C-alpha cells in the first residue's frame, strides 16, 4: 500500500468542506471525517440519521465511462452520453485524439485541453476505439485539476498492484509518443492506484439512456467497507454521487457501504475484497459461519446417505475446512471449492441462455438436485429471472411464471431482512421495480 500524503485527518476534512462548499450548500451536515477503528480515515454520522435520508452528496475529482472491456465503448468520454452509431469511425473525435465523443463535446472547451494532450502523444489508431486508452482518460484528467482538488486526490489511499501497472502499460502502447520519463510514469501509476482503490462504479441516466460510469469522489472515498452496511450509493449524474442511509444511524456511528454484492457468500466477498481492495474483511457477518442464518455458502454434504448441508467453519482464512451441520463430517476446502465451482458453472452457463421459462424450470426442478436453495449462486439465478421478467420482453409468461417471480422476490427480500440490509438499493429495485 502506498501511504496517503502526510495530511492530517482534520486538514483533509477541512479541504473536503471547501471542495463541497464550492458546489453544494449543506447547512445541516450529517457527516464528519475522523480516524476509523476499521481502517485509516472514515466517515461518521454527525447526528442521528433516519433510513432513506441522504447522508451526503459528493462531486467527482475524476470521472469517465467504465470502459472495462471492448463491449461498452460507445459512450462519449466527456458527457458520458450513449453514442447511437455502432460504426467506431463515426463516433471518434474528428480532431484525432482517438476518443469517442458526441458532436457537442467534440467542440467543447472541456474536451479541448485533453484532446490536445492526447494528440500530442500521437494515438496509433485514430479510427478504432482502444478501451485501454479510453480507461486512461479519467486518469489523464488529473492534469487539469485545480490546486484544492489535486491536494484532495493525492491525500487518498493508493493500493499498489501489478495489474494497475499493466493497465498503464497497455494504455501507453496505444500511443506513439506517450511520456517515458520515470517520474511522470510514477505519477500516472500512483493516480491509477488511487483511482482503483477508491473509485465508485454505477449506472446513471444520461440523456435518458442508462450508462455505466466510474468516478472518484474525495469524501465518499473515505467510506470504509462492511458486509452488512448501513449506507448505499447511487449516481445522481456522471459527476455526482449520493450516499443514503439504509438503516437508522446513531450520531457517532461510522458510515459504511459494501464494496461487494450483498448476496455473495462470505468466501466470494472475502476473495473479491482481497484481490481488488487488498484487505481481509473481519466484520460481524464475515465472522458468522451461518451468515445471520442465510447459509449463502451452503453446499450439500458429500458423506454417503447424509442429506445435510456443509458450511465453511473457519472464518478468517480463504481456504477453510467445511463441516456438515447434520453429520458433522469435515471436508477440506479444495473438495468443496471444486463442488462450488461446479454449481457456479452449471448455473451460470444457463443464465441468459434460452427463455426465462426454461430458466425457471431449471432453477425449480434441476438445481435442487445439486445445490441447496440457500446457496448464493442459486439466489443470483433467481435475481436474474426477476430482472429479465421486469424488463421489456417479447416473451409471454403464464400464471405459474408470475407466481415464481413473486416467490423469488419474497425469498430475496427475506434474505436481505435476515442480513439486516435495511432499505438497500437492491431491496428497492426488487420491491418497487425501479429498473
Ligand atoms: C476507499 S478506501 C476507504 C478509506 C480509507 N480508510 C482511507 O483512510 O483512505 C478503501 C481502503 O480502506 C481500507 N478498508 C476499507 N474497509 C475496510 C475493512 N472493512 N477492513 C479493513 N480495511 C478496510 C482498505 O485498505 C481499502 O483498500
Ligand atoms: Zn458528449
Ligand atoms: Zn478529441
Ligand atoms: Zn465482512
Ligand atoms: Zn452430513
Can I get a quick summary?
The chain is α+β, with helices and mostly antiparallel strands and 435 residues long. It has helices at 9-23, 88-91, 103-106, 109-120, 131-140, 147-153, 162-172, 182-198, 266-277, 284-287, 333-350, 356-366, 376-390, 399-419, 425-432, and strands spanning 31-35, 41-45, 54-59, 62-65, 200-206, 209-216, 224-225, 231-237, 240-245, 254-257, 299-300, 309-312, 322-324, 330-331. The protein folds into three domains: 9-58 and 217-237 and 245-255, SET domain (Beta-clip-like), CATH 2.170.270; 62-212, no CATH class; 266-431, Serine Threonine Protein Phosphatase 5, Tetratricopeptide repeat (Alpha Horseshoe), CATH 1.25.40.
Structural features:
15 helices; alpha+beta; Serine Threonine Protein Phosphatase 5, Tetratricopeptide repeat; 3 domains; Beta-clip-like; four-stranded mixed sheet; four-stranded antiparallel sheet; 435 residues
